[in-house]
Predict the structure.
Amino acid sequence: MVRTICDKTGIPFEAKSTRQINHPEVSALLNQAARNGTYTTALKVFAACKQEGMTDIDAVITRACSAMEAAYQEQVEAKAQRKQEQRDSERQRQDARRDREWTNSILRDNGYKWFDLGFKDEEDADFTNFNAVTYGRDWHLYYGDREVSVKQAMLELAWKGDRRAKNWLVEHGIAEEMPEIEKHRQDGEQSPTQEEEEQFTEEQLSYQQEAMQALQEAGLSEEAARKQAIFWSKPHNASNDELIIAPSVELHDGRLAFPAINGEFRYGILMNNEWTGIDELLAEEELLPPSFRRQLMIYGERNKRVHG
């Protein structure tokens, strides 16, 4: 045995050889600290004890153990906090998605439609006469030719007695009140939706007839199909050429798929606001719930019938 000095604490101890630079208890504690993530804490305590000139190894070890235990507990609590924040964030994301789907279901069932009035790029915007345009997605809600906010739409529906709209207002903390359109009606003003009958070319009228048939086959009501057919027959940008026709379906990889039809009466799927062909998605059979796969096959047959 040789008498030497612990490198980490400066405390003399009996070592088996001069190659042993740390007290056995210090070495053991450092090994433990390395395993539980408190190594830096242990080093700081040993350095502080050395600087203070402590000579009692038991007191040093006790002090280091207390500090390591506190540091480890902080790590555990921080990890638990991060997991809780992740769970809260995921729950909020899911709640927001459910709320959007619920909101859009109410609006869609009552004839309200979302239109993307943004433009993909300058080339897409070249076909307009607008002085100011928005690039990227720019969603606007319409009822016929009248633009409304979601709140306005829900107030209008609640005023008509729609129970789902009434529940929506309660869930979002909005008090029921007379909607603006009803105020205009009662004041004897012309409703914003009352406009002179539009004049269409023979080509537009022919297109509207075809579009109405295709849209009704896709599941739209006669009135909804008529309004959409009129909209498609008028000049519009490419991003407004796709219409969601059914609620979203969650694929096995977590993505949401929205069945849609475009102005050429071709069925497809919108995922992350991007168009995906029916055959392309059918090729990923492992991702498809069985009932959704059957519906895609129906859409595919309709595409073949119309487009060959």
In short: The chain has a mean pLDDT of 85. Residues 2-77 form one domain. The longest strand covers residues 256-262.
